[in-house]
Design goal:
The protein has 127 residues and is an all-alpha fold. It is 69% helix and 0% strand.
Length: 127
C-alpha cells in the first residue's frame, strides 16, 4: 500500500527530475566549505531536495502532476541553470526554521541530527 501511494502516479519525467535534485543536494553536503558554514548539511539533504523541488515547480508555475515529457526538457534546463540558486533558497529556509526552532541559539550536532528525524520539523520547514 505505501509503495502504491508514492509510485502509482509517478511518471518518468518526475522521477528523473527528483533524482537530479536529490543528487545535487546530497553532493552539496560533502562540500567542505559549505559544511563549515552550514552545520545542518550532513543531516538535511532530504529536506533540501524537497524544498528545491518545490521551488523549482513554483518558479515554473507548475504542479507536480503537470510535470511530464512535454515540459521535461524545459524544467531540466531550468534546474541545471538555477540549481545553485534553488539550493541557496532552500538553505535559507532551513536555517531560518532552525533558528526559530532553537530560539536563535546555536544547536549542537546531536540537536541537528535529531531535528532532521523529527516529522514536526518537516512541517515547519515546508510552510
Amino acid at each position: 500500500p505505501y509503495y502504491s501511494l508514492i509510485y502509482d502516479k509517478l511518471n518518468a519525467a518526475q522521477l528523473i527530475i527528483a533524482v537530479l535534485i536529490f543528487r545535487y543536494a546530497d553532493n552539496q553536503r560533502r562540500n567542505k566549505p559549505l559544511l563549515e558554514k552550514h552545520a545542518h548539511l550532513p543531516y538535511s539533504n532530504y529536506y533540501m531536495a524537497m524544498l528545491m523541488g518545490r521551488f523549482l515547480l513554483e518558479n515554473n508555475q507548475l504542479s507536480l502532476e503537470k510535470l511530464d515529457h512535454t515540459n521535461f526538457a524545459t524544467i531540466k534546463t531550468y534546474f541545471e541553470t538555477n540549481k545553485a540558486r534553488l539550493f541557496e533558497k532552500a538553505n535559507n529556509r532551513i536555517e531560518d526554521a532552525i533558528s526559530k526552532y532553537f530560539n536563535s541559539e546555536k544547536p549542537t550536532m546531536e540537536d541537528l541530527a535529531g531535528l532532521f528525524r523529527n516529522g514536526d520539523f518537516a512541517n515547519k520547514v515546508s510552510k
